[in-house]
């Protein structure tokens, strides 16, 4: 059974350490599992509802351990490098989408990139609705990027955390 936790009304902090602490404290409220398979404690944390789509975090992550989670979007199909369909965008899906948006409209993309910079700095985007015709809806894409940054902060806190993904984005665009 999957436990669903609604976080869409939760006001998260705008500071990296506090944000990480808040998320970890939420995860610490999970009931422990009693084994594998159906005995695993499973959680979906709904973080945003956007135009009929649902952005949610899934725990536990299937390939990682600890406080890790996956970012998912109900209503969108993403494909990994092997062509497998999933609700989970990969970092490469995000980067490919950003490159396509930049190619579509470099000037508009400059304004869009400033929103990514805000998110990287733990600030909300000033604008999230951009009229790109290619790829993922801008509101969904920015929300996914936000949660990927948070996931990286939790998983790689003692290293550079969100800076690794941010650098990969900057190097690609």
Beta fraction of the residues? 15-25%
- Runs in which pLDDT lies below 50 for 5 or more consecutive residues are none
Cα-atom Rg, whole angstroms?
16 Å
For the biggest sheet, the summary is: 4 strands, mixed
Instruction: Round the mean pLDDT to the nearest integer and report it.
Output: 94
**Cross-sheet strand order for the largest sheet:** 1-2-3-4
Count of runs of 4 or more consecutive helical residues? 5
Give the distance, in angstroms, between the N- and C-terminal Cα atoms: 41 Å
Helix content: 40-55%
Describe, in plain words, how this protein is organized in 3D.
The protein is α+β, with helices and mostly antiparallel strands. It has one domain. It is 41% helix and 17% strand. The chain is built from five helices and six strands, in the order βαβββββαααα. The strands form two sheets. The protein has a four-stranded mixed sheet, covered by helices on one side. α3 packs parallel to α4 and α4 (138-155) crosses α5 (162-172). The N and C termini lie far apart (41 Å). The model has no long low-confidence stretch (mean pLDDT 94).
Summarize the structure.
The chain has 173 residues and is of the alpha+beta class. The protein has helices at residues 16-28, 91-104, 106-120, 138-155, 162-172; strands at residues 2-6, 42-50, 53-59, 70-74, 78-79, 85-86.
Highlighted features:
two-stranded antiparallel sheet, four-stranded mixed beta sheet, 6 strands, single chain, alpha+beta, 41% helix, 173 residues
What topology does this entry show?
Elements: E1 2-6, H1 16-28, E2 42-50, E3 53-59, E4 70-74, E5 78-79, E6 85-86, H2 91-104, H3 106-120, H4 138-155, H5 162-172
Parallel strand pairs: 1-2
Antiparallel strand pairs: 2-3, 3-4, 5-6
Helix pairs in contact: 2-3, 2-5, 3-4, 4-5
């Amino acid at each position: 059974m999957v436990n669903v936790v609604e976080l869409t009304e939760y006001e998260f902090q705008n500071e990296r350490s506090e944000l990480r602490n808040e998320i970890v404290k939420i995860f610490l409220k999970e009931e422990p599992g009693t084994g594998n398979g159906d005995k695993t404690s499973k959680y979906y944390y709904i973080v945003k509802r956007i135009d009929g789509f649902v952005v949610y975090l899934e725990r536990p992550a299937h390939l990682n351990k600890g406080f890790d989670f996956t970012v998912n979007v109900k209503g969108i199909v993403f494909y990994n490098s092997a062509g497998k369909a999933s609700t989970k965008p990969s970092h490469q899906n995000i980067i490919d989408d950003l490159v396509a948006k930049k190619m579509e409209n470099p000037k508009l993309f400059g304004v869009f990139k400033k929103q990514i910079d805000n998110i990287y700095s733990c600030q909300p985007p000033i604008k999230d609705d951009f009229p790109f015709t290619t790829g993922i809806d801008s509101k969904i894409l920015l929300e996914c990027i936000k949660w990927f940054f948070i996931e990286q902060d939790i998983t790689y806190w003692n290293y550079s955390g969100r800076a690794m993904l941010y650098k990969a984005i900057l190097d690609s665009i």
